[in-house]
Design brief:
Low-confidence stretches: none
Mean pLDDT: 77
Largest sheet: 2 strands, antiparallel
Distance between the termini: 12 Å
Helix content: 55-70%
């Protein structure tokens, strides 16, 4: 599974405590994500909610990587996974599909 998202790491940039942009590791790579955070700012007055949204967006590449690592780790163990492990694997697969446009 290969994602076409802007490569991380992403980080939240703050302006007087209010997150206004999310930047990726490369110059200019954060423009689309920056626009999303600016839209949140226009629609919501709650800077706590804006900060939470920005942190979640910034963590997205690492969360996707973790989900993919888990699915790859349990790939050969389908017959021996517990019900809980199967549920986690299915949740990870659904999140990966959503994040990569496969689902």
């Amino acid at each position: 599974m290969n994602s076409k998202h802007t490569p991380g790491p992403w980080k939240v940039q703050n302006n007087n405590g209010v997150p206004v942009t999310i930047e990726s590791g490369g110059i200019g790579d954060g423009r689309v994500v920056t626009m999303l955070v600016d839209l949140f700012g226009d629609r919501h007055d709650d800077t706590t909610e804006n900060a939470a949204n920005a942190r979640l967006i910034a963590a997205a590449p690492e969360l996707l990587e973790a989900a993919m690592a888990y699915v790859n780790h349990v790939r050969g163990y389908h017959d021996t996974l517990s019900d809980g492990e199967l549920e986690v694997r299915n949740l990870c697969q659904a999140a990966i599909a959503k994040a990569t446009g496969q689902g």
